[in-house]
Design brief:
Elements lengths: L19 E14 L7 E3 L2 E3 L7 E4 L9 E3 L16 E5 L12 E11 L5 E3 L4 E3 L2 H8 L5 E4 L1
Parallel strand pairs: 7-10
Antiparallel strand pairs: 1-7, 2-3, 4-5, 4-6, 6-7, 8-9
């Protein structure tokens, strides 16, 4: 039977995260995601850099990737600006299941939208977790963002 899987076995389902509560009145901006800022994930034994829609993204303000964005990380070991709540630019809308393994990629970031908080993601240093109340509250007070959480 034809398919997209290598070998003869079936792979674990890996799909797009649906985080928008409504598709009306969504406003977006284009940014370049630094591939180096996206942590690898294990998908059926393969380490890949996958970026899900719903991931909160923040500006990188120092280092060689300055000017690009990456996943917001609530981790004290991150020192490139992505750990700072004031640097959050919005929520990623682009599904990148493998492209970041190859290069930096442009993504669409929602800066005005109605979203489901439990479907939005942030990185805690080891894994992606549901968006915390602390991060959601900080996003609510950030200039230039109008993200409404349900």
């Amino acid at each position: 039977m034809p398919g997209f899987s290598k070998g003869s076995g079936y792979r674990t389902p890996f799909g797009k995260n649906v985080f928008l509560r409504s598709t009306q009145d969504v406003k977006t901006e284009s940014y370049t995601t630094a591939a180096a800022s996206v942590p690898t994930r294990d998908v059926d034994g393969d380490a890949i850099k996958a970026l899900q829609p719903g991931t909160v993204m923040a500006k990188i303000t120092s280092g060689v990737e300055a000017g690009k964005i990456g996943p917001f990380e609530n981790d004290i070991n991150v020192v490139d600006g992505r750990q700072t709540l004031a640097n959050i630019v919005g929520v990623n809308q682009t599904f990148l299941p493998w492209q970041l393994n190859e290069r930096d990629v442009e993504v669409s970031i929602a800066y005005e939208a109605s979203v489901v908080q439990s479907k939005c993601l942030e990185h805690n240093g080891t894994d992606y977790i549901a968006l915390t109340d602390t991060t959601a509250a900080a996003m609510f007070g950030t200039k230039g963002l109008d993200i409404r959480f349900a």
